């Protein structure tokens, strides 16, 4: 639900956003890729949510603990 909500919030302020799916820490996971100032950046708003962190990362490269498999167009 975090990635879907982030997707809708990003698009509501005019940002292009894609939902990404793939393995992370041994399970299937979903995160976002958002176009910011002409650069696609990955964001995982779910990771470490209980640790009080706002975002796991905002990076042009995917974290080593995530493996991209496909874009989730059904949830967009």
How is this structure best described in words?
With 76 residues, the chain is α+β, with helices and mostly antiparallel strands. The protein has one helix and five strands. Strands 4-3-2-1-5 form a five-stranded antiparallel sheet, with helices on one face. It is globular, with a radius of gyration of 12 Å. The N and C termini lie close together (12 Å).
Q: Helix-strand pattern, N to C?
A: HEEEEE
Residue windows where pLDDT falls under 50 for at least 5 positions: none
Gross morphology: globular
Structural class: alpha+beta
Give the CA-CA distance, first to last residue. Answer: 12 Å
Main β-sheet description: 5 strands, antiparallel
Helix content range: 10-25%
Q: Count every beta strand, where a strand is a DSSP E run of 2 or more residues.
A: 5
Q: What Rg do the Cα atoms give?
A: 12 Å
Strand line-up in the sheet with most strands = 4-3-2-1-5
Task: Describe, in short, the structure shown.
The protein has 76 residues and is of the alpha+beta class.
């Amino acid at each position: 639900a975090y990635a879907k909500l982030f997707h809708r919030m990003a698009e509501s302020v005019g940002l292009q956003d894609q939902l990404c799916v793939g393995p992370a820490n041994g399970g299937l996971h979903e995160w976002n890729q958002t176009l910011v100032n002409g650069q696609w950046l990955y964001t995982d708003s779910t990771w470490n949510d209980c640790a009080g962190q706002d975002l796991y990362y905002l990076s042009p490269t995917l974290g080593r603990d995530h493996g991209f498999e496909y874009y989730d167009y059904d949830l967009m």
